[in-house]
């Protein structure tokens, strides 16, 4: 008996028991970020989340206590550290997922293996795919997960709080002068963010111009020569610069770079920018402050907003 059939046989009694409890409960339906409809016979009570970002969004939706398993590096909020693990986001332990007895799995489109997601679906477990590309997509994500978990009231408030804070930031920086930005994710190989990456959206909110926004991959590799040719005014990283500060020091080898001449090297904690959850607004505020510092360092407009 292959793994899929064996796991399905293990899951069948669980699904039958769940169905027996749904006769008196109303179903809930949403569309996920791929456009697929997800319907549950009753709000989820046992959720498996397959990325740290999804954990944070699920907590924001008021359903953190319904998470019965998640993946490595899910460390926020602090209570998430106590949740059992089912492997890493790129290598899911299917048997551990089944052992958690979920009635909903929330997956990460660009981070989870498509084959693992498909196997979970084949076992009859409902799967919601999460992949917000813009910060304005996050509050809707919170609301949809709240619907699936039966925590709509909490989710709507969290979503509104996000929208209010987002609009405040957008209005504050809307008329600031543009700053060209190279956003460094990794050094060797040199990896940046494409225009579809949510971090690029954060750069735009701060009136930054991602020099590689025209690239389609979410995390494209680029050359040092391409960065030098674009001559960014600021270089940002939210990669491993907290552990390896030399990542930004590398650029000092090119004294003709505008960013080097003005010492416009900035770091944002990776968890605040790399995760598409509510805390991305904290990272965006730090990013906006950094780009304002870059504006203030311009020789002819030092004190202009």
Short description:
With 305 residues, this protein is an alpha/beta fold. 39% of the residues lie in helices and 14% in strands.
Structure description:
Strand 3, helix 2 and strand 4 form a beta-alpha-beta unit. Helices cover 39% and strands 14% of the residues. The chain is an alpha/beta fold and 305 residues long. Helix 5 runs antiparallel to helix 6. The strands form four sheets. It has a four-stranded parallel beta sheet with strand order 4-3-7-8, with helices on both faces. It contains twelve helices and twelve strands. The longest helix has 22 residues. The termini are far apart. The protein is elongated and about 65 Å long.
CATH topology of the largest domain: Rossmann fold
N- to C-terminal distance: 67 Å
**Basic shape:** elongated
CATH class descriptor name of the largest domain: Alpha Beta
Main sheet strand line-up: 4-3-7-8
Whole-number radius of gyration?
22 Å
Helix content: 25-40%
Number of strands: 12
The CATH homologous superfamily name of the largest domain equals Nitrogenase molybdenum iron protein domain
By helix and strand content, what is the structural category? alpha/beta
Write down the secondary-structure element order.
HEEEHEEEHEHEHHEHEHEHHEHH
Strand content: 5-15%
The profile of the biggest β sheet is:
4 strands, parallel
Residue-averaged pLDDT? 90
Number of DSSP helical runs:
12
| Count of discrete domains | 2
């Amino acid at each position: 008996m292959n793994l899929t059939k064996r796991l399905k046989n293990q899951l069948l009694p669980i699904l039958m028991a769940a169905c027996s409890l749904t006769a008196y409960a109303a179903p809930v339906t949403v569309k996920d970020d791929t456009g697929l409809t997800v319907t549950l016979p009753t709000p989820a009570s046992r959720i498996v989340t397959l990325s740290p970002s999804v954990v944070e969004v699920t907590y924001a939706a008021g359903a953190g206590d319904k998470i019965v398993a998640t993946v490595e590096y899910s460390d926020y909020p602090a209570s998430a550290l106590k949740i059992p693990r089912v492997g890493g986001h790129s290598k899911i332990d299917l048997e551990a997922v089944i052992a958690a007895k979920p009635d909903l799995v929330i997956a990460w489109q660009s981070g989870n293996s498509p084959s693992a997601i498909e196997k979970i679906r084949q076992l009859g477990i409902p799967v919601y795919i999460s992949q917000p590309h813009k910060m304005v997509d996050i509050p809707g994500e919170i609301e949809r997960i709240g619907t699936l978990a039966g925590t709509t009231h909490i989710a709507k408030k969290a979503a509104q709080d996000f929208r209010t804070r987002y609009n405040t930031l957008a209005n504050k920086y809307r008329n600031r002068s543009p700053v060209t930005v190279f956003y460094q994710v990794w050094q060797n190989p040199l990896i940046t963010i494409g225009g579809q990456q949510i971090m690029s959206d954060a750069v735009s909110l701060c009136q930054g111009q991602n020099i590689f926004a025209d690239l389609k991959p979410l995390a494209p590799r680029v050359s040092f020569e391409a960065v030098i040719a674009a001559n960014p005014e600021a270089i940002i990283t939210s990669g491993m610069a907290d552990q390896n500060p030399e990542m930004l020091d590398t650029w000092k080898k090119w004294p003709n770079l505008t960013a080097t001449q003005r010492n416009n090297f900035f770091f944002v904690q990776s968890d605040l920018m790399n995760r598409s959850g509510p805390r991305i607004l904290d990272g965006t505020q730090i990013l906006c402050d950094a780009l304002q510092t870059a504006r203030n360092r311009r020789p002819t407009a030092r004190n202009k907003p």
